[in-house]
Amino acid sequence: MVEKTNTVSERGTVPVPQLREAVSGQVLVPGDAGYDKARTVYLGGMDQQPAAIVQPSDAADVARIVTFARENDLPLAVKGGGHSMFCLVDGGLVLDVSSLRGLDIDPQTRTAWADAGLTAGEYTNAAAEHGLVTGFGDTGSVGLGGIAVGGGVGYLVRKYGLTIDDLLAAEVVTADGELRRVDAENEPDLFWAIRGGGGNFGVVTKLKFRLHELTTVLGGLLVLPGTAEVIAGFVAQAQEAPEELSTILNIMPAHILPFVPEEFHGTQVAMAMMVYAGEGEAAEQALAPFRALATPIADMIAPIPYPGVYPPEDDFHPVAAARNLFVDSFDADDAALVLDRIGASTAMVPAVQVRVLGGAMARVSEDATAFAHRDRAVMINVAAMYGDPTEAEVHTRWADELTAALQKGVPGVYVNFLADDSTARIHEAYPEQTWNRLRAIKRTYDPTNVFRVNNNIPPADA
After folding, report:
1. pTM for the full model?
2. Helix, strand, or coil (residue 319)
3. 352 pairs with which residues across the strands?
């Protein structure tokens, strides 16, 4: 099921009066104004009740909170944009870095120092004022610190690579309470680990990103009939497309889409978000093969400012059984299997998302960062959204079985998309050599596993 219940277990309780004395930022406890808002996250079905939520005033405050958690043996969760299943902890301490909101953009050097509490949308809107971009994910409400430490797979992944490929430096509070500046020259092992290793090595408070010149993209939704031939053809075209084009294809029932004519309700469709990093004739030529796969049901592709790739923010909090995997191919047989399983699902919204990778992401050496799926061709998300909590088991089983049926070749999972399967599958996120190196670095920087409320990589044995 979706709900992730991190609990105090056998650890200590939170001494709130001492916590308030230790930090300068705001400390929220149950009953305080703002507490319920601070524990609200993107996912539905999450109802953890932290003993305290601390919104730090600066990086020094973060260091004090981490030290406090370590000295009191408290479970510590880190929350930014709130998209993670692991950003709350029942009865424990939550460090809400969304209060860290500084941003310094240098158009001359095309770099930016951004506080980890900013969202991708806020950063993207500010960078757009200078005609510049950094690639993040597929939604504007995700926090910078969270998406960056996992990798960052979004609408510019084929053109400019992962988010971490544009991460030049960071400031990190490690388990010992030290604030460290890390980059290729300073503590390079830690810098390597935070680029794909998740939140296992400290709390990122500030990030330095590379920016690229880009103002307008040719982008928007393209909805095609959901047939095996069209879906397989779409994937094949996406793999052959120029690197400027990144796509996210969703295979799903048509009835939930308000812009799909009623005559298609009851059918399945292939709904794709298309983003070409540029505009003009080359962009139109890159999109033409997709439009030729079948008569589009809806075609909303148009030149738009880059921030327009993010959907409008709303108060939607989906409850879903979700799984992620990497595969090296996706053909008509796979598409037929997906269509069949979606048709058999009893969920309100069963869906499978297909992202073709490659391009700039694949040209980075596999051992250059802790994210080590550079050679995988396709990333897939399987999801079943539902409303009745008693149905969680049946929808989770559906997602697990479809994931297993689609898996071909070497198992793999994107650490940012691990859900309630994280304990069993965390090792799949990393090849053996990467896993062993991460565990060794964890032993150096977090030997007592302070940052265990996470997609946890345990420290190596001493």
Report:
1. 0.95
2. coil
3. 251, 382
